[in-house]
Amino acid sequence: MKRMTIVSLFPVIWLVSCGGPASRHEPNEKFYLIASNTKVPYWQHAFAGLSKGAAELQVQAEMAGPDKYDPNAQHEAFQRVLAKKPAGILLSAADPELVKPDIQAAISQGIPVITVDSDAPSSKRLFFIGTDNYKAGMMGGQVAAKQLSGKGTVVIFSMPEQVNLRERLHGYQDAFAAHPQIKIAEVVDIHGNPPVAFDKTTEMVEKSKSVPDAFVCLEAIACPEVADVLDRKNVKGKVVVAMDTDERTLAGIQKGVISATIAQKPYTMDYFGVRLLDSLVHYKLTPLDANFAQDSRSPVPTFADTGATLIDRSKVESFLKERGTTTAAGQ
Questions:
Q1: Burial (Cβ within 10 Å: 0-12, 13-18, ≥19) of residue 21
Q2: Residue-wise pLDDT tens digits, 219-265
Q3: In CATH, which of 3.40.50.2300, 3.10.20.30, 3.10.450.50, 3.30.930.10 is domain 6-131+265-300?
Q4: pTM of the full predicted structure?
Q5: Is 162 helix (H, G, I), strand (E, B) or coil?
Q6: CATH 3.40.50.2300 correct for 133-263
Q7: Most CB contacts within 10 A, which of 173, 262, 305, 329?
Q8: pLDDT tens digits for 72-108?
């Protein structure tokens, strides 16, 4: 995937800053974020960013999608949203191939679609805003390798359909390739269901002759369950590298059950995303279905990296303090 350069950032800055008086907005102008597993804390942070951006623009915004991991239900939610003729759509693709025709349909109707968090790179979405997921996987892999002193067995929890999780896995694999004595014993598909991670970890602890040396979670919901099992069973000395900043994950780091987590910026993804969608509505790209990814004069980037941060026990208190400060300030 192409990376956004300083030069390609200028059109984005122009789009965000171009604004104008609130009167430019139609009363029915509404933007949607379509996700999956919408009740988890990660998506609540994302919705806060969406809501803040929409409030500043004085437009309407709503999050749609199933409250559990269900790609088919997300596909159906997209179709319902499209029937409402929204001004623009932010999408985190649970299954990129399944929603690809939905994206194409929206673009053909002149409705801009930007992917956030999880991309659909083969579709006609305009561009992707989110984490450099390969880099995040490398970051986690390097932490795990250091904690393991370069040797041990690892179990990874994932959802292989999602592009972002496949990229993170690739990053972990490349990080571990520098340490031949680290072996990935199994990649567990949790199907978006936290109890799968709980039950699988319990099985490993109770029935396996050799409990894995490390547990890695490529998404937000598995590692709180892993940590819960290890804590209940009083299993010590295991390396656990999580993803995102669920309260239970941060509590696990404070308690010493989780070694570290990779923090993304879902608030930023959707705050930035809705502002860009608004600009694309009022300063239209023509044609909307152009191949911007291969256009050397594209007015938009292929990818906007919102960044990721490693949080371990030495950093968790400052992270919580900062998040509390920004939340209180309404940021």
A1: exposed
A2: 999 999 999 999 999 999 999 999 999 999 999 999 999 999 999 99
A3: 3.40.50.2300
A4: 0.88
A5: coil
A6: yes
A7: 262
A8: 999 999 999 999 999 999 999 999 999 999 999 999 9
